[in-house]
From TrEMBL:
UniProt keyword Iron, yes or no: yes
Binding site for Fe cation: H85, H87, H137
Crosslink feature (3'-(S-cysteinyl)-tyrosine (Cys-Tyr)) location: C91-Y153
Entry annotated with the keyword Nucleotide-binding: no
The species this protein was found in: Bosea vaviloviae
Matches recorded under CDD domains: cupin_CDO
GO biological process: L-cysteine catabolic process
Protein name according to UniProt: Cysteine dioxygenase
Gene Ontology molecular functions: cysteine dioxygenase activity; ferrous iron binding
Keywords from the named record: Dioxygenase, Iron, Metal-binding, Oxidoreductase, Thioether bond
């Protein structure tokens, strides 16, 4: 799947994300924001990629990755939703096309959480968080068409299947 971006562009993206402090630093978050701003500013490039799609769900497409970071294009079909979750690594994302709804939660115990805030993230939005959280959230496509987002995670895609550390069940809201 890493063939979606040519080798030169993949190398440039991965080099720009490398910091002396690793993926748990403010420098890394600044670098990830810069990369995401560049990618969301080129929606035609991303939308022309041969991205996999799944009716009713979301599909992760690996764009680039190494032992420290992975960059994914995620296509969200109408109605697609993640579980309520927190990450084991840094998590940055930008919206390329459409609107994704992000709901934030507060844990009330190790398995349950209550909603605290909900935001519609529109094309051009970029956000980043370190795993110092908790950063408990859920993402959903409540619109009529596909949404495309780019995610940069501070993990090796070959060592971990996902960036999700903990899943929660919603209580209230």
């Amino acid at each position: 799947m890493q063939g979606y971006l040519n080798e030169e562009r993949r190398g440039a993206v991965l080099r720009s994300l490398r910091t002396d402090e690793g993926t748990l630093s403010r420098d890394y978050l600044a670098a990830a924001r810069t990369v995401l701003r560049e990618l969301v500013a080129m929606p035609d490039l991303v939308q022309r990629l041969p991205l996999e799609r799944k009716a009713g769900g979301y599909t992760r497409n690996l764009l680039a990755g190494n032992e420290a970071v992975s960059v994914w294009a995620i296509v969200w079909a109408q109605g697609a939703t993640t579980c309520i979750h927190d990450h084991h690594c840094s998590c940055c994302f930008g919206v390329v096309a459409g609107t994704i709804t992000e709901t934030w939660y507060r844990a009330i115990d190790v398995a349950r959480a209550v909603p605290t805030e909900e935001q519609e993230r529109q094309a051009g939005y970029v956000g980043c968080m370190l795993p110092s959280g908790p950063n408990i959230h859920r993402m959903r496509n409540l619109g009529a068409g596909d949404v495309i987002t780019i995610h940069i995670y501070g993990f090796d895609h070959e060592a971990h299947a996902s960036s999700i550390e903990t899943e929660y069940t919603a209580v209230g809201g």
